[in-house]
Amino acid sequence: MVGGGTEAQAKDVCxxxxxxxxxxxxxxxxxxxxxxxxxxxAKRVLDxxxxxxxxxxxxxxxxxxxxxxxxxGKGKKVLAEELRRKGxxxxxxxxxxxxxTAEDENARAAELVRRKLPSLPSDMDRDxxxxxxxxxxxxxxxxxxxxxxxxxxxxPRTSAAEREPVEADxxxxxxxxxxxxRESPSTDADSAAELVRKKLPTLSPTVDRATATRRLVGLxxxxxxxxxxxxRVVAAELADFPAPxxxxxxxxxxxxxxxxxxxxxxxxxxxxxxxEPADAEHDHARAAELVRAKIRTLPAxxxxxxxxxRLVGLxxxxxxxxxxxxxxxxxxxx
Length: 334
Prior knowledge:
Layout: H1 7-20, H2 25-34, H3 39-51, H4 57-70, H5 76-85, H6 90-98, H7 102-116, H8 126-139, H9 144-154, H10 189-199, H11 209-222, H12 227-238, H13 261-266, H14 280-295, H15 304-317, H16 322-333
Helix pairs in contact: 1-3, 2-3, 4-6, 5-6, 7-9, 8-9, 10-12, 11-12, 14-15, 14-16, 15-16
C-alpha cells in the first residue's frame, strides 16, 4: 500500500494496535508509515485520536515509567532512554520521571539486591559481592551513588563465612518448598510477626534501631515475605521495645525478675522500668497508653479476636498480669 490507504483504514490499524497496549504517538506514526499510509493521512488520524484521548503521550509516559519501575525494577536512567526511543518529548518525559522519587528508587533497588543476594556464592568476599551488585543496579539504570549506597546497606559487613546463619528451625534452601506453594507468605503478617518475636531476643541489646530493622527485614525477605509486609511488621514489633536512648543498660530488653516481698517493702533493688506499673491506677493507665499506640500500627483488616490476642500478648511481654491485660485491651477495643 505505497502512498495509499484511507483515513478509516489508518484508524482501524491504530485501534488494533491500541487494543494490545497503550502506545505513543510516534510509535503509531511509525507503524502507519511501515504500512504505506502517507504522512497527511497519518497526521489527521493521529490528531483525531489525540483529541478523543486515545493517544496521550503524557499519560503513556506516566504509565510506562510506573510499570517499568515497579514491575521491571528499572532506574530513571534506563527509563529516560526507553521514553526517548518511544518518541516521547522531554516535556512529557520529565514529569513522568520526576514521579519516581529518590525514596522509590532506594526501596526498589534494595528489593533487587535482597533478591539477588541468596544467589551469590557463599564463599564470595564482600568487596566482590558489592561490585557485582552495584553493576547489576547500574545495568538497570540506577545511578552509581544510589547503587553503592543501597548495596553497602544491604550487604553484611562480615565475611561470607560469618554471615548471619539461617535459623535452626528453617529448612535448607534446597529443601524448602517453592514460594508458590507456601501459604500466602507475602500477606501472612501474623507468621511474620512470630518470626520477628523469636529473633528479637537473640539481637544484641546494644544494636541500634536501624541495624535491627535491616536484619529483621532481611530475615523476612529470605523467608519470602514482600518488602511492604516485612517493613510494616518489623516496625510494629520494634515499637514494642524502648529506643536505645530509653534503655537502662543491656538488660533493659529482658524481663525484670520478680522481687520478693522484703525487697518491695524496703525498696531494695528498685530498678523498675519507666513503663512498669507502680500501682493499680498507673498500671491501667500505662497499659492503655501502650495499647492505643499499638492499635495505630495494626493492619486495617485485622479481626477483633486477632487484635485482642496480639495486644494482650504485648502487655504480657511488658509484665502485666493476664487479667489487667485483658481488661485494658477489651476496654480500648470497645
